[in-house]
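User: Hey, quick favor. My workstation is busy. Could you predict this chain's structure for me?
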Amino acid sequence: MPGTPDIEVVVFDVLGTLVDEPSGLRAAIREAVPGAGDELLELWQEHIEREQDRIGRGERAYATSEVLDTEAARLVAGRAGVTDPAVVARLATAGQRLPAWADSVAGLERLSRRFPVVALSNASHAALLRLNAHAGLRWHQALSSEDVRAYKPAPEIYQHAIDTAGCAPDRVLMVAAHAWDLRGAQAKGMRTAYVHRPVGDPPSEGDAFDLRVDGLDELIAALA
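Assistant: No problem, here it is.
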């Protein structure tokens, strides 16, 4: 794929791929609960994963990321004995204050000079608006699971990205740090690029993604 001229649109996952989600959540939890260990972070992450899976299986009606984050914040606060409503309310917005990886802002800026760049995230539109402002991320367009009321890796969210791109799936490149995300995109005919992040889901031996890169600089070089 390096040097391939047929990519028209680049689509990025956000959480974990362009921002360091665990570090941001950990910092917010420790602000609410000084000295907290990672067991509270794990409680938060397990709740989000479980509830998104339940929604995907049809066991729960779709709820936005803001609703799930509020639930997670209340679970964490309950476990830690935090009762101040203002502290719990701020904790519920932790997902809107995640730090960008070191190469994310400049990498997006460089890519956006050559390609339409789209965000495709499980975060709600309101959360994305604030997260992008906090982390300094800039897009030509931001798409949310909220648009189709389904969380990745549901096929309809990738189809939403393809429809928005307005071109054939094999001219749309999905970039993510999560192999499960790329498998979902691949199943809809999109091209795929795995970018290594410390908190991602690495490819298995059976994965055949178009690109595997260590960061956005390497991705840009491959697309040049």
